[in-house]
């Protein structure tokens, strides 16, 4: 029983990993069971079985892509001191992720946002909730930095979240579409500048 459960887990992980790669290139809506089955050397029933439906597989793919982003951009930065130091760590990790994306076609969430923003449904709702949580995380870091005196209190936290997100989306396009190797470094510089000058002795890093 234990061995069977472990095999099932590994099979599911293998399917999701392959599906993430496919969806990065073809989009979540372009994810086909037939193409996955051929790539994996499995039957269509074997591919869809662990998820119950194509929609279930799409949800698992989105969740995996979000986990990959979180592990690369959020988790490593939580060790930094709250305030500007952590914000700088987030920006650095975010831009490094854009420059060296684990996905064939750049940031998965950005691509999925462009694909799904006008398509109501469960998948769009899941993605909207993901982006909302990310914006909330950024806003929390900004407000914390303002309370510590690291960032000017006159700056609107919501405006900064939109500005940082816009810079990241622009950088993703410049990297993927234009092949601009300077885009990630420029995004990092612009994001840091948007937060205002560092206060002496505070938030350095």
Automatic annotation (TrEMBL):
One of its GO terms (molecular function) is DNA binding. InterPro entries: Homeodomain-like_sf, HTH_TetR, Tet_transcr_reg_TetR-rel_C_sf, TetR_C. PROSITE patterns: HTH_TETR_2. Residues 32-51 bind DNA. The keyword DNA-binding applies. Residues 9-69 form the HTH tetR-type domain. This is AcrR family transcriptional regulator. It comes from Thermocatellispora tengchongensis.
């Amino acid at each position: 029983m234990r061995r069977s459960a472990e095999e099932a887990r590994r099979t599911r992980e293998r399917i999701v990993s392959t599906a993430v790669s496919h969806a990065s290139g073809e989009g979540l809506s372009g994810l086909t069971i037939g193409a996955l089955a051929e790539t994996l050397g499995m039957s269509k029933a074997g591919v869809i079985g662990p998820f119950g439906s194509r929609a279930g597989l799409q949800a698992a793919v989105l969740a995996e892509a979000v986990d990959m982003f979180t592990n690369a951009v959020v988790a490593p930065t939580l060790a930094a001191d709250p305030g500007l130091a952590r914000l700088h760590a987030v920006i650095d990790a975010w831009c490094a992720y854009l420059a060296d994306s684990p996905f064939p076609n750049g940031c998965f969430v950005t691509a999925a946002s462009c694909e799904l923003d006008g398509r109501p449904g469960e998948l769009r709702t899941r993605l909207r909730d993901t982006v909302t949580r990310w914006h909330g995380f950024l806003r929390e870091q900004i407000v914390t930095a303002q309370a510590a005196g690291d960032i000017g209190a006159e700056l609107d936290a919501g405006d900064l979240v939109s500005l940082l997100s816009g810079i990241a989306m622009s950088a993703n396009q410049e990297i993927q579409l234009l092949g601009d190797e300077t885009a990630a470094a420029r995004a990092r510089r612009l994001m840091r500048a948007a937060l205002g000058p560092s206060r002496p002795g505070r938030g350095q890093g």
